[in-house]
Design brief:
mainly alpha; Serine Threonine Protein Phosphatase 5, Tetratricopeptide repeat; two-stranded antiparallel ribbon; 1% strand; elongated
Length: 428
Amino acid sequence: MLGRYFFDKTERGIDFVWMQHDREKILEGRHLLTEASEEGDADALCFLSRTYMGAQYVWQYSGLDEDDDRAEKLLRESIQRGSACGVLIAMRCGVLTLYERRSMPFASLKEAWNIVYKKAEAGHPFCQYIIGNTYFWWDIFEIEGTKPVQKYQTMENAELAMAQLAEPWFERAAAGGLESAVNNWYALYDGTNGYPENKAQQLEIARRGAEAGFPVWMYNYGWDLDHNGCYSEAHKYLQRAADMGQASAWIILGNQYLNGNGVPEDRAAALRCYENGARSGLTDAQYMTALLYYQGKGVQKDSAKVFYWAQRAVVEGEDKEAYVLLGHVLLRGEGTQKDEKKGLDLLLTAQKHDVQEYEKKGRYLFSQEIRGILCGDLGDVYADGIVVNQDYEKAIAYYDVVAGWDSYAQAQRARFKKSFFSRKWTRR
C-alpha cells in the first residue's frame, strides 16, 4: 500500500527506527523494512541498509547489530532498483562508484536529487535531512556539476551559502521528529561549517532537541548545563534521558549524587546510577561502580562486586584505573580467588600508564586515591617478596611516593627503619 511518501511498510519502518527511541519499536521497524525490501521496494532497501551501518546512523542504544558488508550490499541494490534516497545516501557513504552511477535508472544525480527534494518539500523529515546533507557536505556541487568558487566567487562565500541552505532543512527535519538532523544543525555553529562559532546558538539548538523529546539531546543539553554549573536544571533533562534509555546520562547523574551537585549528596543513589550505566556496558560507569563498592562509604563494601565490575571495565574498555582495583583484589584474594602474579601484572601495567602520562603531560593519570592503592600494593609486593624477590629499598620507594597523603602507605612505611651501621632498611 502506498503511503504519503513511500510504501506504507517503509514509512512505518522509518518512523519506528529513527523517531521512536524504543528498542522493541526499532526492531519492529527493521522487520518492516525487511519485509518491504523482500516485496521489491527499492527505498526500503536503502533505509534497511542504514540500520546495519552502526551507532553513527541509528540511536546508539537501539540494539541493532552492525554489518558493514550487508549494509553496502543492500545500498547498492537499492540504487540499481531505483531508490533516489539510496543514490544520495550512497554519495555520502562513498559507495556511489562509477558502476552504480551507470546502473542507476536515473539520467543524472540531479534527477535523483529532485525526487528526494519533492518528498522533502512535501514534509518527509528523513528526506529533509538528506537534502540538508547535500548542502552541509557540499555534495550539491557534484550533483549540479558546478564548482564552489565558480558559483559563489570565493570559498568563504560558498561556506556561508551552504550553511544557510542546509540549516532550514535540518530545522524542519528536527521539528518533524528526526533526531539525527539536530546533530548537523548543531555542527553548523562549531566554527568550521560556514557560520562563525556560536556557543549560545549551539546551546539553543541543544535545548530545542531536548524539548523535542530526543534522548540524545536531553543528554547533550543536560551535559552542557551541568558543565556550566546549572546542576538542578541539568538533572531534570539527564533523568528524563536516562529513563528513556540514554545510558550515558547515568554517569553524570551518578556524579551529581556523589558530589551533591543539584541534588542532595547521596552515595547510595550515586551507586544505583553508576550500576545502571555499568549494566549498559559503559566503562566509566563500571569503574565507578567498582570504586564505590571498594570504598564502602555510604554503601556496603563488597569485594566480589569490586572484582566483577573492575574486571568488566578492564576487559570491555581497558579502563586504566580499573587495572589498579582489579590488580588489588587479585593480589590479595579479596572477593575472588587469589592470583598474585596476575594481580602484580595488572598493577605494573597501570604504573606504566601512570608514568607515561606524567612524562608526556607533566601530570599523573590517576587520582591520589588510586595512586595510593597502586603504590601501597607495589610496596607490599617488594616488602613481603610476593612473586618477586624481597627488596625493602624498592618497597620504601613505593611507599614514599604516596606517604604524604595515604595513611596506609604511612603505616606500612613505619614498619621499617634504617640500620645505624649499614644504613640499610630493616623491619622494626
